[in-house]
Design goal:
Elements lengths: L8 H6 L16 E3 L4 E3 L9 H8 L23 E6 L4 H9 L6 E8 L14 E7 L9 H9 L7 E8 H15 L6 E7 L8
Parallel strand pairs: 3-4, 3-6, 4-5, 6-7
Antiparallel strand pairs: 1-2
Helix pairs in contact: 4-5
This protein binds flavin-adenine dinucleotide.
Length: about 200
């Protein structure tokens, strides 16, 4: 397993001969209970990918290595609102952000999931509005529904911070739309390609 907790982990991993290189995937700590030695992770299963297959056959007691690259969300002090956008892979991160969101902060959330069965009720502070979109039965590229929703959305008033993650085109297209069509300053947007359609991780 890589041992460094910074961006150099990928270099370290690639130096391991392929025959003994472990499968490594980025995941989000949804909740941690250090006193109980417990961590919750939510996997967006799909097809027969290495991660999905491992999750489906995993049994209690199977070994898995974890190393922490230590990223966290910090809302800029000047932000009067939030826009959170993501697909199923960003769901754990968005739910964690909502856990820490004060009720005074106007927050719009656009979440796209693969199937209607993935939609759940969210316990969120009063100022939060969650909009769900499911691709169920629709032959569209992942991220399309969330992107369309942002294009139609009335945005929080005042200066707000946007956090968007998921399929990489969703992240870049949301940023491009906000900057070019809505006049949002680039520095008010955090965007992350969590995975890329047709490409296996690590990229
Ligand atoms: C910081 C960070 C945090 C993340 N947190 C989470 C998390 O909490 N939970 C989570 O499930 N994922 C999370 N991801 C995304 C996850 O790491 C990727 O989806 C990863 O590619 C999954 O590996 P895999 O073995 O399933 O597929 P890969 O071997 O990487 O890819 C195989 C094929 O599946 C496609 N693919 C990958 N992911 C998906 C998907 N979700 N839906 C449809 N097709 C897909 C690829 O385009 C490729 O064609 C996170 C990524 C980052 C960078």
């Amino acid at each position: 397993m890589p041992t460094v907790s910074n961006e150099a982990w990928i270099v370290q991993l690639m130096l391991v001969p392929k025959s003994v290189r472990p499968w490594v995937r980025n995941l989000t700590i949804r909740r941690a209970r250090p006193a109980d030695d417990e961590t919750d992770i939510e996997f967006a299963l799909h097809d027969d990918s290495p991660m999905s297959s491992w999750v489906r056959r995993a049994e209690q007691g199977d070994p898995a290595g974890i190393f922490d690259v230590g990223t966290a969300y910090r809302l800029p002090e000047h932000a009067q609102g939030q826009l959170l956008v993501g697909d199923g892979t960003a769901l754990p991160a968005i739910l964690s952000i909502l856990d820490a969101t004060p009720s005074s902060l106007a927050t719009e959330v656009c979440l796209e999931v693969a199937a209607a069965a993935d939609i759940r009720s969210v316990e969120a502070p009063a100022g939060v509005r969650v909009h769900w979109f499911s691709r169920d039965g629709e032959d569209v590229r992942p991220g399309t529904l969330a992107l369309d929703a942002v294009r139609r959305a009335s945005l929080p008033s005042g200066r707000f911070h946007t956090w968007v993650a998921g399929e990489s085109r969703l992240a870049t297209a949301v940023r491009r739309h906000l900057v070019n069509d809505r006049g949002v300053p680039k520095q008010d947007i955090s965007f992350f390609g969590y995975w890329r359609l047709g490409r296996s991780a690590p990229a």
